[in-house]
From TrEMBL:
Name of the protein described by the UniProt record: DUF456 domain-containing protein
Native source organism of the sequence: Halalkaliarchaeum desulfuricum
Pfam families linked to this entry: DUF456 (PF04306)
Keywords: Membrane, Transmembrane, Transmembrane helix
Domain of life of the native organism: Archaea
Length: 160
């Protein structure tokens, strides 16, 4: 008979993978929750190295999900103020805008913030477009990270 904690953990881990490509679903947090549910309530103990590894990758997925656009803005040379504005915009827009609103909002914030920093419009636009590319690329990174948490869990907890 399948253990309830294992079933819940696997469902959460699968939700994390699905959430990496479905907007507004916290993929990294679902993966994190899946590992923690099994660690807290599962019948077989998870070793500290495996636990740390799975939690670290899931946490990194959550960070990439939330801050991918801001990280991309900073990587293109945007100011610290612009980067912080992009982070705040992403956090606030998560609660009031749909997926398109979040992306458009973050890109617009980067563009306007850079203009307010006296950056030439063409450079501000380029940084905003790189931010858009970073947001879109973060989806692929999230998918890879959440898949690796699911695969690691299945291999080392379920199969071995």
């Amino acid at each position: 008979m399948i253990e309830i904690a294992l079933l819940v953990a696997v469902v959460l881990l699968i939700a994390g993978v699905v959430g990496s490509v479905v907007p507004l679903v916290p993929s990294g947090l679902f993966s994190l929750a899946g590992v923690l549910v099994y660690w807290l309530f599962g019948s077989e103990p998870i070793g500290p190295l495996l636990l740390f590894s799975l939690l670290a990758v899931a946490l990194f997925a959550a960070v990439v999900e939330q801050f991918g656009g801001a990280i991309a803005a900073k990587a293109t040379g945007a100011s610290n103020r612009t980067t912080i504005a992009a982070i705040v915009a992403g956090l606030l827009l998560f609660f009031v805008a749909g997926p398109v609103g979040i992306v458009v909002g973050i890109v617009a914030v980067v563009f306007v913030a850079e203009l307010l920093e006296d950056v030439p419009p063409e450079i501000a636009f380029r940084r905003a477009m790189y931010t858009l590319a970073g947001i879109l690329a973060s989806t692929g990174v999230q998918l890879l990270l959440t898949l690796s948490v699911l695969a690691g869990f299945v291999v080392f907890v379920v199969l071995l």
